Amino acid sequence: MMRSASVSRRTAETDVAVSIALDGTGKAEISTGVGFLDHILELFALHGLFDLTVKVTGDLHVDQHHTTEDTGIALGQAILQALGDKKGISRYADIHLPMDETLTRVALDISGRPFLVFRTTFPTEKIGVFDTELVREFYQAFAINAGLTLHVETLYGENSHHIAESCFKGLARALRQAVALDPREEGRVPSTKGTL
Ligand SMILES: [Mn+2]
Questions:
Q1: Could you give the CA distance from residue 90 to residue 178 in angstroms, rounded to a whole number?
Q2: Which residues 6+ apart lie within 8 Å of 118 measured at CB?
Q3: Neighbours of ion ligand 1 (CB under 5 A)
Q4: How much distance in Å is there from the Cα of 144 to the middle of ligand 1?
């Protein structure tokens, strides 16, 4: 069974197409019109071992906000769809992800009860032309639409590029573990409720 999904989402502000295969090889084809967003989505695919295609046409004449947020919405929806009935998944995962001077902790639960705790701040407003405040916007949109309980905390760090990258690599590595099928679950949904 292929755990994959495609989502197309069009509004007056953006046109987003996302395809993901959870049991992939890390192959990425990303084009959002925002260079840094492309960069972190490529990292996300590689470190999650997801095959990921993301094509976005957004209102970048306004700013990068809608493009970044709507990409998070569509990616979250695609992952939720690809998970299907969630039978046999590991469900929980956490990781400490170091990048040079930065250390970020990501803990998540594929719970169906969306919640974001985001304790990461950036020492600069921009990474290149990318607004660092949009990292949180992305995580909020992603967690809500994927149905994740998602906790992100940067314990320390000085460089904004490293901080953002540690967040996305941490998300990818934790998600890779949480979506992985655990043979000991024998195809059960890992919840006493019988559903997630
Ligand atoms: Mn980088």
A1: 5
A2: 136, 139, 140, 152
A3: 165
A4: 26
Report the CATH number that the domain containing residue 144 is assigned in CATH: 3.30.230.40
Report the number of distinct structural domains present in the chain.
Answer: 1
Residue, of 103 and 186, whose pLDDT is higher: 103
For 8, the 3-state DSSP assignment is strand
In a domain, 190, yes or no: no
- State in Å: Cα 126 to ligand 1 middle: 14
Cβ neighbourhood burial of 123 (10 Å; 0-12, 13-18, 19+): exposed
Q: Residue 19 sits in which domain range?
A: 4-185
Parallel/antiparallel/unpaired status of strands 126-127 and 130-131: antiparallel
Q: Which amino acid is at 182?
A: D
pLDDT digits (tens, 9 = 90+) for 25-82: 999 999 999 999 999 999 999 999 999 999 999 999 999 999 999 999 999 999 999 9
In a domain, 152, yes or no: yes
Confirm whether 194 is domain-assigned: no
Q: Measured in angstroms, how far is the CA atom of residue 60 from the centroid of ligand 1?
A: 22
What is the phi/psi pair of residue 89, to 5°?
Answer: -75, 160
Q: Note the pTM of the prediction, 2 decimals.
A: 0.97
Q: How far is the CA of 164 from the centre of ligand 1 (A)?
A: 9
